[in-house]
Structure formats: structure tokens, C-alpha cells
From TrEMBL:
It comes from the Bacteria. This is Glutathione S-transferase N-terminal domain-containing protein. PANTHER family: DISULFIDE-BOND OXIDOREDUCTASE YFCG, GLUTATHIONE S-TRANSFERASE-RELATED. It comes from Rhizobium puerariae. Residues 18-105 form the GST N-terminal domain. Belongs to the GST superfamily. Residues 108-234 form the GST C-terminal domain.
Length: 234
């Protein structure tokens, strides 16, 4: 049985089965990237719900695994060299799991880096901009009379989603016929933008032709459907 005692997070969220990957997350747009990935690749894992509503990511135990205080994070008992390995940042986790299993990342070097570039595009653009739009449109920011902050993020989110629209011309997935971690990185964010955030009108989502079909294809995948609800919210 793997010994995870070197990871203080396991004292607050004990592993029932320390021999399988431990996921510390919540079904947010960033969190579901990893749960969807794990469901797609079929790697056994144990999910732990981290209640961000009561600031559990800022507890000493969670910060010992991710000093940035964000979900998701993982501990792989069978990490590099066969030793337990902790990792945070959703994009890094997607790459790690893809390389660990040889799934959802092309083996051809050029296509591999092309896929990674789109994951980085999501991490640097889609996530931060859609998240800020959500804040200023749905959450506390909606009460601010000055709508310039909201409109700024709406304009940039509209531009970014049209980058995806252009990329999908003649393609079912970001990388063409092959569904990859690039798609996984973006599905939850686009779903959230038009669903939970209710910002579809702000980015003129109805004018898009390819992104809605891409999103529908993604959401039809059984692994995506399962991953969107893991871990169960507290």
C-alpha cells in the first residue's frame, strides 16, 4: 500500500485507497478538466471535494499541496520513478496524465506541440477572461454601475470564442478528427460561459456556427457527462 503520509493534505482529506490517484477538486470549469480527463482515460482515482465556498483551499493542509490555493490538484501514488507525486495547475495535470497514459495527446511531435499550444491558449486567455466576465456579469461585479469592466471582458471573451470558431472550420475537434486535451481544457469554460454565467448574449454566441456544435459533441461524450459532476459538491 502506498504511503502518502508525506503529504499533509491527506490528514484533512484521508485516502480510502492510497494506491490510486487522489483528486482534490470541485466541478468548476477548471476542476472538471481533470475529472473529465480521468474519466476519459479510465485511470482509477479517488475524488475529494474541496469546498471553496468556505475557503478550504486556504487551509494549511491544502496549501501544502498547492501553495497558490486553487483547485484542482492531485497526488499520484505511482508518480515518476514509482514514487508518490503531487501536482497542481489544471493544464499541467492534463499534460501529465496524457503523457502518463499515452492518451489524448498526439505522439507526433509537431501535433503534440500544436495541441499543447491550444491548452496554453485556454490557460492564458479563455479561463481568465471568461472568469472575469462571469464575475462582472453574474457575481458581485454585476452591482457596479459602471459597466465598462464587464464590457471589456465581454469584448475580449467574444474575440476569444471566435478564435475557437475559426479554428474549428473544417474540424470536429480542436486538432481535427482527434479529440484531445485541448478540447477537454475548453469544454467546461464554454459551457459555463453560456450556461451558469448566462453570458451568451454578451458574446453573441447565437451568431456562431461551429462552437455550439463542438460543444454539443463534447457534452454528448459519456466521460464528459460523468466528469462534469465529480466530485459531488458538498
Amino acid at each position: 500500500m502506498a504511503d502518502l503520509s508525506a503529504f499533509p493534505i491527506t490528514s484533512k482529506w484521508p485516502a480510502k485507497n492510497p494506491d490510486i490517484l487522489q483528486l482534490y477538486s470541485l466541478p468548476t470549469p477548471n476542476g472538471v478538466k481533470v475529472s473529465i480527463m480521468l474519466e476519459e482515460i479510465g485511470l482509477p482515482y479517488e475524488p475529494h471535494a474541496i469546498n471553496i465556498g468556505v475557503d478550504e483551499t486556504w487551509t494549511p493542509e491544502f496549501l501544502s499541496l498547492n501553495p497558490n490555493g486553487k483547485i484542482p490538484a492531485i497526488i499520484d501514488p505511482d508518480g515518476p520513478g514509482g514514487k508518490p507525486f503531487g501536482l497542481f495547475e489544471s493544464g499541467a495535470i492534463l499534460l501529465y496524465l496524457a503523457e502518463k497514459t499515452g492518451k489524448l495527446l498526439p505522439s507526433d511531435p509537431a501535433k503534440r506541440y500544436e495541441t499543447i499550444q491550444w491548452v496554453f491558449f485556454q490557460m492564458a486567455g479563455i479561463g481568465p477572461m471568461f472568469g472575469q466576465l462571469g464575475f462582472f456579469h453574474k457575481f458581485a461585479g454585476k452591482d457596479i454601475e459602471d459597466k465598462r469592466p464587464r464590457d471589456r471582458y465581454a469584448k475580449e471573451s467574444a474575440r476569444l470564442i471566435r478564435v475557437i470558431e475559426s479554428r474549428l472550420e473544417g474540424r470536429d475537434w480542436i486538432m481535427g478528427d482527434e479529440y484531445t486535451i485541448a478540447d477537454i481544457s475548453m469544454l467546461g469554460w464554454v459551457r459555463n460561459l453560456i450556461g451558469f454565467y448566462g453570458a451568451g448574449e454578451l458574446v453573441e454566441y447565437d451568431q456562431l456556427k461551429r462552437v455550439p456544435k463542438w460543444l454539443e459533441r463534447g457534452l454528448d461524450r459519456p466521460a464528459v457527462q460523468r466528469g462534469l459532476d465529480i466530485p459531488k459538491r458538498p
